[in-house]
Amino acid sequence: MFPQLLQLGSFSLHSYGLLVAAAFLVGLLLASRLAHRSGLDPDLVANLGIYVAVAAILGAKLFLLLGDISYYASNPGQIFSMATLQAGGVFYGGLLAALATAIWRLRRAGLPALRTADCFAAPLALGHATGRVGCFLAGCCWGKPSKLPWAVTFISPVAREVVGVPLHISLHPTQLYESAAELIFFAVLWRRFHRPHRDGAIVGLYLALYSIFRFGVEFLRDPANLSFPIAGPLSSTQWMALAVAAAGTYLAARRSTA
User: Fold this and answer.
1) Residues in the chain with pLDDT < 70?
2) For residues 201 and 252, is the Cβ–Cβ distance under 8 A?
3) Are 241 and 215 in contact (CB under 8 A)?
4) pLDDT in tens, 104-142
5) Cα–Cα–Cα angle for 197, 203, 208, nearest 5°?
6) Beta strand 11-14 pairing with 4-8
7) Is the dihedral angle over the CA atoms 247, 249, 250, 252 positive or is it negative?
8) How confident is the model at residue 12, as a pLDDT?
9) Owning domain of residue 169
10) How many domains does one find in the chain?
11) In 3-state terms, what secondary structure has residue 170?
């Protein structure tokens, strides 16, 4: 809807980038607060968050490129184009890169893995909710055509040029579906964190909740947004969501009783 919030000469302030930056700062503050409550060093946790955030961005972009490798191989200049740089990337690519980086940094910092991960679960949900609003404003990650009363129509030529969203067609606002769900998850996780729980219960609950929801919302997303070719009856994202949901459910159920 509003991919550019401000244009001054050659300088552009993009809504997606601004919201992602705000989400990162707020998430980092909340994670540090929860770390203090858990008896962890807030500075170490904040440093971990910075490493993980950078890894998540790079991983999401890498999976974006791999998902359309034939196009980028034929058009290598597009790798560093504004369309690619402004695209959100593939969430699960960012998640895998973030997990790998977190394991490395946790070992170096001597932080307990599951307890530390619990501190990031609720802030991650809030940050993701904010980021999806940025997706909506930028026009990316759009849904299939819809005749529902709350369907949205994109009209910005800039959004069309940058992310390829179809204009003047009523679409499912899948970005807002996901943002609303993540806000609910944040509230659930925040409340659960402040109740007695074993290490790993909170992050396991988040992985299960988000993956189950993501599995469902993928049916409403436009096929043009699929990051990898269809793998059988489901998209590759849905297969990955099932695997992550199973892991999260196991972790939450195994450690949910204090």
Assistant:
1) 1-14, 67-68, 71-72, 75-89, 91, 224-232, 255-258
2) yes
3) yes
4) 999 999 999 999 999 999 999 999 899 888 888 888 889
5) 110
6) antiparallel
7) positive
8) 61
9) 4-255
10) 1
11) strand
